[in-house]
Write a structure and sequence with these properties.
The longest helix is centred in the first third of the chain and has 26 residues. This protein is an all-alpha fold. The chain contains eight helices and no strands. It is globular, with a radius of gyration of 17 Å. It is about 50% helix and about 0% strand.
Length: about 210
C-alpha cells in the first residue's frame, strides 16, 4: 500500500482536521455515484478503496500512537453503553469515522448485539456488504428476537450473497477480507427493507 499521507495528499504534520478535509474532498471526487454508466467507474471504485484504506490507516496510527482521537480530544477507551445512542446519531449524520471510533473503543469481550448491529451499519454505509453481513449476523445470533437486526442482516445478505450460519462464532470475520469498496452505494435500494431501523434513517445511501 502507498504511503497513506501521500494518498490523501497531505503531509505527516497535517492536523486531524486537515486530514479529514482532504479525505472528504477526495471522497466527493471519486465516489462511485459520480461515475454511474461511466467507463471510468472501475478506476474510480479502486481509487475510492485506496482513499478509504489510507484514511483508516492514518486514523488508526494516530489513535494508537497518541491515545487521542481525531480532533485532539482524549480517546475514551472504556466501555459505555450510553455511547450507543451517540453512535446512532453519528451514523445518521454520515459521520462514520467518529461512529467507528467509539465502537472500536469497546473491548471485544464487552461487544454485545447492539455493538455488532451498529458496527454492521457503519460497514454497510461504506458499501462493505460482506463485512456488514457478518456483523449483522452476529447481532442476530446474540439477539434473534430483534427485528431491526434481522432486517439489516437480510438487506446485507442480498448485497453480499452470503448465507446465514447460526453456528459461526460471535465476531467471526467482523474485520476480515472480502469487502467490495468499489461497489459503494451500488444497489442500496434494498435498504428500503430496513425501514424499521430507526425510522429508516440508519441504513441509507450516503
Amino acid at each position: 500500500m502507498r504511503d497513506p499521507y501521500e494518498v490523501l495528499g497531505v503531509s505527516k504534520n497535517a492536523t486531524d482536521d486537515q486530514i479529514k478535509d482532504a479525505y472528504r474532498e477526495l471522497a466527493r471526487k471519486y465516489h462511485p455515484d459520480n461515475y454511474t454508466d461511466n467507463p471510468l467507474s472501475d478506476l474510480a471504485g479502486e481509487k475510492m478503496k485506496e482513499i478509504n484504506e489510507a484514511y483508516d490507516a492514518i486514523v488508526n496510527e494516530r489513535r494508537h500512537g497518541s491515545s487521542k482521537k481525531p480532533g485532539g480530544n482524549t480517546y475514551n477507551n472504556s466501555y459505555n453503553h450510553t455511547n450507543f445512542p451517540e453512535v446512532r446519531s453519528l451514523i445518521n449524520q454520515g459521520r462514520l469515522e467518529q461512529a467507528q471510533e467509539i465502537l472500536d473503543g469497546v473491548p471485544p469481550q464487552n461487544r454485545d448485539a447492539e455493538w455488532y448491529f451498529l458496527n454492521g451499519t457503519v460497514l454497510y454505509r461504506r458499501g462493505w456488504f460482506d463485512q456488514a453481513y457478518t456483523s449483522f449476523a452476529t447481532a442476530v445470533r446474540m439477539n434473534p428476537q430483534n427485528p431491526e437486526y434481522r432486517n439489516a442482516m437480510n438487506a446485507a445478505q442480498r448485497q453480499s450473497g452470503q448465507q446465514y450460519n447460526p453456528y459461526r462464532p460471535y465476531g467471526y470475520g467482523a474485520y476480515g477480507a472480502g469487502c467490495h469498496p468499489c461497489d459503494i452505494c451500488q444497489g442500496l435500494i434494498c435498504a428500503d427493507c430496513c425501514c424499521e431501523c430507526m425510522g429508516g434513517d440508519l441504513i441509507r445511501c450516503c
